[in-house]
Amino acid sequence: MNQTPLQLLACASALVLAACAATPPTSASRTEAAVFTAVTSSVHRDGDDLLSGGLGLDGLRGMTAPAFADAHAPSAAELRRRALWSSWRGIADLRPQGGYGTLYGSLTTVPGREFQAFATVPGTRHPHRVMLQLPDTFDAERRCVVVTASSGSRGIYGAIAVAGAWGLPQGCAVAYTDKGAGSDYFDLDAGMGVGVDGRVAGRDQLLAFDPGNAAPATGIAFKHAHSGDNPEADWGRHVRQAGEFALAMLNDALPDAAPFTFDNTRFIAVGISNGGGAVLRAAEDGDWLDAVVAGEPNVQIDAPGARALYDYTTEAALLMPCALAALDGLPQSPLSALATTMRAPRCAALRKAGVLEGDDTATQARSALAALQAAGWTDEAIRAAALSVDFDLYRAVAVTYASAYGRFAAGAHPCGYSFAAQNPDFSPRATTAAERAAWWSDASGIPPGAGVGIIDPQLAPPDLTGAGLACLRALWTGDGGDARRVRAGVQQLASAPPRAGLPVVLVHGRDDGLIPIAFTSTPYASAARAAGRDVRLWEVRNAQHFDGFLALPDYAARYVPLLPYVYAALDRVQAHLDGQDALPADAVIDTRPGGTLDASALAIPTR
Questions:
Q1: CB atoms closer than 10 angstroms to residue 204
Q2: N or C: which end of the chain has fewer CB within 10 A?
Q3: CA-to-CA distance for 310 and 401, rounded, in angstroms?
Q4: How many CB atoms lie within 10 A of CB 101?
Q5: CB 397, CB 391: distance < 8 Å
């Protein structure tokens, strides 16, 4: 990777940089300076590139991750290539039948330079990662930056398939943030974390995250859950700092074209899922932004129909396994058979707790289904939720987010959860050196995965995870101190409408079972329009939350990917900013899913 220190001379004489914007600062930025440390640069040409690490479409489609020469000590270059591979496969539908690279999207080779750093929001304990990818084709006469935030809790490359794939082939620079989450795990047993370049390092080196000496002596801590910063509350500031980092790096890398400012450089923000929520938070204070595209955003707003992620996730974690027993013809995954065996025990446990009605599983399942429907869940979202139940995603989200919202330290989860490598019987064990070495490249930022599991002290048959989930739900519905602490953290997430005059396009699948459109994009658009803002909404029929899961045959037969519509919205926004086209109209897009897609199946709007 040949990383070298980069002198930050563009906006300040030290590593404390104020925004380089020529426009008047916003209320938030007047008193805030972006603090960048550990700045590095690297060159990616000649068999390597910015978009895929030289793997190309065929390499990304490979079922086996790029190998490490030494599994215990991979190089920074090996980690980067593997992080790109895992980020692409986690986000995009790369099946040959799915049309990536032919119907939509590009994986052309994009040589260029990469700049990375740690950035710190004033008042927080831990940094977030920022990165700028600068393609060799960047045109200083038509200067554009796409700014983005990783989806989910992914690492710094977590939006490569969203922002990088659209911006880099067009010659735009792309600025990223992991928004205070990411895969910078810390091994408490070994006392080792992740360094600047993704390699495992000890506390004698600069680490991306260190939970501190008060943390337990065993297990695994990670930034999203255990930073104590409630990073979601600062998503908008994370995105803004990524933009500031982009200007600083452009000024340094291209001095003959300087200055680069928010006034003379186009900034388009785009993200999906949590990244979509992050760019909408940036849009509130968005005098520096020219347009925003948010796909399937996790956004919370005080409006009719809106619900907080923690509320509907803990509700689904408890009720959905039982409710699905009332439905036939559900989408099937490799874990569906196992998940089906857990339905009756969950129904019985909820009936015993007085949550459901009925004396048999069928009646209890109908009661659970009715409760979800009464709470606003659509039939499409409930059916697609089978995937989140099969892969235990609701529990995974709830465990981590309870810790984050309540700012609970490692070892202090109010429901007793912790994280560790696991034996076959789910008991914790120490992590191996090889597992630890691959965290940064392979982990999604939220366990389980990459050799890290959820340790549940209340795990017990017949309803294995039920007691722990009831505890997580009570943190939303209860009155105890821990519940008030979690809800206080959630209250810090409330979004406001985007700034007046900022074009915003939302793209959301009608069948999203993880972040349902009825709780997020629909009420957000309504509230923003009521405030006089220019927000457009594309609702995509037969699109669920995870394009990457279209690799499962039954999901590919039932659903279409969402990324084509995000890219198309970006195209339309770009044309609008160029004065060539109007912003897209609201649309409910009728798609035709199937194993092999074509342009008519996607039915992307043309106006």
A1: 7
A2: C
A3: 7
A4: 16
A5: no
Selecting among 87, 273, 418, 444, the annotated active-site residue is 273
What is the mean pLDDT of the segment spanning 146-167?
98
The SS3 of residue 426 is coil
Distance CA(49)–CA(296), nearest Å, equals 29
Find residue 100's DSSP bridge partners. 104
Q: How far apart are CA 153 and CA 174, in angstroms?
A: 19
Q: From start to end of 104-210, where are the E strands?
A: 112-120, 128-135, 144-149, 173-177, 186-187, 192-194, 200-202
Total number of residues shown for the chain: 607
Q: Which has the closest alpha carbon to 159: 140, 135, 136, 181?
A: 181
Bridge partners (DSSP) listed for residue 422: 428
Spell out the residues 6+ positions from residue 580 whose beta carbon is closer than 8 angstroms to its own: none
3-state secondary structure 465-499: CHHHHHHHHHHHHCCCHHHHHHHHHHHCCCECCCC
Residues 6 or more apart whose CB falls under 8 angstroms from that of 529 comprise 535
Give 87-138 pLDDT, tens digit per residue: 999 999 999 999 999 999 999 999 999 999 999 999 999 999 999 999 999 9
**Is 0.85 topped by the overall pTM?**
yes
Known catalytic residue at 29: no
* The pLDDT of residue 604 is above 90: yes
188 within 8 A of 215, measured Cβ to Cβ: yes
Pairwise CA distance, residues 431 & 222, whole Å: 14
| 34 pLDDT above the threshold of 80 | no
pLDDT digits (tens, 9 = 90+) for 556-598: 999 999 999 999 999 999 999 999 999 999 999 999 999 789 9
**Residue 53 corresponds to which tokens in the numbers above?**
């690490």
What Rg, from alpha-carbon coordinates, does the chain have? 23
Bridge partners, 319 (sequence order): none
Any alpha helices (H) in 520-562, and if so which ranges? Answer: 521-530, 553-558
Judge contact between 282 and 292, C-beta under 8 A: yes
pLDDT for the residue numbered 32: 62
Contact 346, 528 (CB under 8 A): no
Structure letter (DSSP) for residue 549: G
Beta-carbon count within 10 A of 105 CB: 22
Dist CA 504 CA 42 (whole Å): 33
Arithmetic mean of pLDDT, 400-421 = 98
**What would the two tokens of residue 400 be?**
């981590």
Closest Cα to residue 563, out of 232, 163, 33? 163
- For 204, phi then psi, to 5°, come to -80, -5
Confidence class for position 285, pLDDT limits 50, 70, 90 = confident
